[in-house]
Design goal:
The complex is a heterodimer of chains A (about 300) and B (about 270). Chain A is an all-alpha fold. Helix content of chain A is about 70%, strand content about 0%. Chain A has a domain of about 190 residues: MetI-like (MetI-like fold). In chain A, helix 5 runs antiparallel to helix 12 and helix 14 packs antiparallel against helix 15. The two termini of chain A are about 40 Å apart. The chains are: A mainly alpha (about 300), B mainly alpha (about 270). At the A-B interface, helix 1, helix 2, helix 3, helix 5 and helix 6 of A face helix 1, helix 2, helix 5, helix 6 and helix 7 of B.
Chain lengths: ~300, ~270
Amino acid sequence: MTMTATRAGTTARRRPGRRRIATLSPSWLFAAPALVVYAAVVLYPSVAGTLYAFTDWSGIGADRSFIGLENFRAMLHDDQAMGSIGNTLLLTVAVVVVQNGVGLLLALGVHAKLRSRALLRVVFFAPVVVSPVMVAFLWKYIYNPDPSAGLNGLLGLRVDWLGDPSLALWSIAGTVVWQYAGYSMVIFLAGLEGVPKELHEAAMIDGAGAWQRFRYVTWPLLAPAVTVNLMLSTIGGLKLFDQVFAATNGGPGYATETLSTVLYKQAFVFGKFGYSTAVALVLAIFVAAVSLVQIHYTRGREVAQ
Amino acid sequence: MRRTFLLEIVMIVVAVAFLFPVYALVTLSLKDPSQIARTPLALPAPPTGDNFAKAWSAAALGPSLMNSTVITAVSLVALIALGSFAAYYLARAKSHLGYGLYVLFLLGIVLPFQLGMIPLYQLVTDLGLIGTHAGMILFYTGIQLPFTVFLYTGFIRALPREYASAAQIDGASHLTAFTKVVFPLLRPITGTVLILNAVFIWNDFFTPLLYLGGSGYETVPVSVFAFVGQYVSDHGLVFAGLVLGALPIVVLFLLLQRYVIKGFASGLKG
């Protein structure tokens, strides 16, 4: 760092004159420490991981050979892996739709001039800051099959929320929505606060009702908040691990396995490191595809503005 | 006037329903096993604090809080230092190298860490950093740098160049201009970087489970996970552990709620 300082300093002294100095850029050495850490923790492991996906590495020693697309072919015949792709996508769609729908309604609710609005915002947002593992354990009890306890006791039901294979995935989605609806809410809220009041007043004078004002004034101006929310919830849903691991560990059967739980088990339970990274690569492709679509739409909107 | 009154009632009812799991959490943590079996949904009568004393030592929450605090604090300092420095170059460079490096950092936001999970685990093992604070700090600094660099670069680009130029005319180097003039101007975005990274690091589970599980240096979520696994059938004890484990960050949130909500609301608006 001292080197950067002296070099930048002498260059500045060698070239006097306002203009020149004002346009001088800092040395690339400013970025060097960050680049080293980033390369070691993200870039190198990601490249190596991509390569491992095409090997049969077991994780013990350096013994591994290149097997082409064999891991991906094996995945096609692996009920657990194929099931996890379906589960991950279903879970993601459910979370994205419900979390953002609820988040938008909450945002519209607390955006109105209510006396309790500040308190309501804090209440709905609070679960966001808590560890997802702890939230999952809490909900594991709420989903207790005991008819007198938890959600069953409250609603007078006899449902095995996490034990019924056809229901477990949706129960986990419910946990995620409960925890993160407040996150969607605050992003929508920031969008709502950016809608000029004059537009609403003008629409009202023109005789627009509440729904029309929402549909034609508020909604179009919420587009940036919608994009951010969709991106965050989609990527969060695709990578979902903690909640599933703590609540069901993928069960009953394979009913709640996601790509993240499968790649974890393949590596650290079965020692199939090559196969595990192949699953990770599939996950990476999903995430990257979503990100690229989002970036495309965000760019398009910026151009339109 | 009447419409907002009705809406207020509806929202309060929604909030009360929303808080039902928290009600269950707190009331169960204050009950003994026989009360939980007889009246799982009623208020504790009488409330007992036994679960809390037992959970505190059984979950090793004292040492875990210490581990989480050290790992989070040092990672945040490293992220702010490395991230803001790098962003100063990336925001001001006019070369192809500057643009290329910026795109390279952004790539890290898109890549899920699971892709590099195993090679990184190997690397951290080879460096002898499995089961240490240093290994976790290195991991969080690297994994959160792309996002941190992205936030800082966007903010610095919107700052007028004249501040730093003025300092340089007075003979300051880039380094001095940055640390003395530019960095203090970054306070709003540093606040956002601090809050978003702190919540992520404090609550992260997957990697600390892999790196720290069984080492004696576990963070709070990993300790709570092990604790719940051990006492799974004793709901009162488990919930007292959850309350204690969640309490520090919830209290911090309540104290700083305005900044936290603002940070999350503005965090990714690119």
